[in-house]
Automatic annotation (TrEMBL):
Protein's name in the database: NADP-dependent oxidoreductase
Lineage of origin: Bacteria, Bacillati, Actinomycetota, Actinomycetes, Micromonosporales
Domain of life: Bacteria
PANTHER family: QUINONE OXIDOREDUCTASE (PTHR44154:SF1)
Gene3D superfamilies tied to this protein: Medium-chain alcohol dehydrogenases, catalytic domain, NAD(P)-binding Rossmann-like Domain
Domain Enoyl reductase (ER): 10-307
Entry keyword set: NADP
Pfam families per record: ADH_N (PF08240), ADH_zinc_N_2 (PF13602)
Length: 309
């Protein structure tokens, strides 16, 4: 099959499309003929070799953790889908890839909502899992006031909508050019950087209950200052979080939280009700994988970066 892959660790230029062995669904898994798959910042870290000592990968490696497609193989024990069903989901996180290809094996999935295009569904599941994991950890419920640092990216746009669906009020930080964009998703926008506490106080005089650091830009001391205690902040992006008493949540690897895979079906149901969508920053072909990684590395993509086979 055709697959995006890198034969050695390095910059985006190491990516190329080449033939790769077809994967097969193991017990509890399914294989899909991929219609679209996502690009996440973590894919660029894996490609750059940032995790090579933590998880040594056999090379060449096929990146990508989320995909949507048509089921063409059903593993032992799977009773919820049949060949021909349209689904979206994630690969086994432990393998750190496998989605940016003609065929991918999914470890968790849900029916593809008709309300989402293939491109939207293909890039959705990883961010949904992350958002659901963080919202559960922070105990977001009706009436909670949540601040999201980095609200305009893939995780931010997803978290805004899932938090609003839980009945929360969401303040999102983003560049000014993204304020209208995140307002349309349900957030109250403000800018990030110096003076955040004063801006937040003007927007919500009662203050903020909980915070997601989805940017990892070094702002944790300021974010911790917005809430009653550091346990009310979760970072998904700052490896130094513990130094501030903040939990660093990840879905795989040593110290990982349990992945919130049930969130995928729940967000699919919200999409069918018109309450969840996936803003697309850009769609590339597999052959343009290097450009897709470079856009992710710019750290200013608006929404999700997607690849089509
Ligand atoms: N631990 C986990 O489980 C997990 C899972 C997924 C992602 N992550 C991490 O979470 C981070 C976000 O992922 P993503 O997929 O949402 O990335 P993304 O789509 O690339 O997000 C980029 C967004 O970050 C915003 N941004 C850039 N600099 C910022 C700053 N200084 N302050 C606030 N916002 C800023 C940009 O908004 P503007 O253009 O408005 O500046 C842009 O919209 C990444 O570091 C990623 O590695 C962790």
């Amino acid at each position: 099959m055709r697959a995006l892959q890198f034969p050695e660790y390095g910059p985006a230029a190491v990516l190329r499309v080449a033939e790769a062995p077809e994967p097969h669904a193991g017990p509890g898994q399914i294989r899909v003929a991929v219609r679209a798959s996502g690009v996440n910042p973590a894919d660029t870290y894996v490609r750059a070799g940032r995790f090579r000592e933590w998880v040594p990968l056999p090379l060449p490696h096929v990146p990508g953790v989320d995909a949507a497609g048509v089921v063409d193989e059903v593993g032992a024990g799977v009773t919820t889908v049949r060949v021909g069903d349209e689904v979206f989901g994630v690969t086994d996180y432990a393998q750190m890839g496998g989605a940016n290809a003609e065929y991918a094996v999914l470890a968790a999935w849900a029916p593809k909502p008709a309300a989402l295009s293939w491109e939207q569904a293909g890039g959705a599941a990883g961010n949904i899992e992350t958002a659901a994991r963080v919202l559960d950890r922070l105990g977001v419920e009706p009436g909670t006031v949540l601040l999201i640092e980095g609200a305009a990216g893939g995780v931010g746009t997803t978290t805004i909508q899932l938090a609003v669906a839980r009945g929360a009020t969401v303040i999102g930080t983003a560049g000014e050019h993204n304020h209208e964009f995140i307002t349309a998703l349900g957030a109250i926008p403000t800018t990030y950087g110096p003076g955040l506490a004063e801006r937040v106080k003007a927007l919500v005089p009662g203050g903020v209950d909980v915070v997601l650091d989805g940017a990892g830009s070094g702002s944790l001391p300021d974010l911790v200052g917005l809430v009653a205690s550091p346990e009310r902040v979760v970072s998904i992006a700052d490896a130094n979080a513990a130094a501030y008493g903040v939990h660093w949540s990840r879905g795989s690897g040593p110290g990982a939280d349990a992945p919130a895979l049930d969130g995928i079906a729940a967000a699919g149901a919200l999409a069918e009700q018109g309450r969840f969508t996936v803003p697309i920053a850009a769609v590339f072909s597999l052959d343009e994988g290097a450009a897709a990684h470079e856009l992710s590395e710019s750290r200013h993509a608006r929404g999700k970066i997607v690849l089509t086979p």
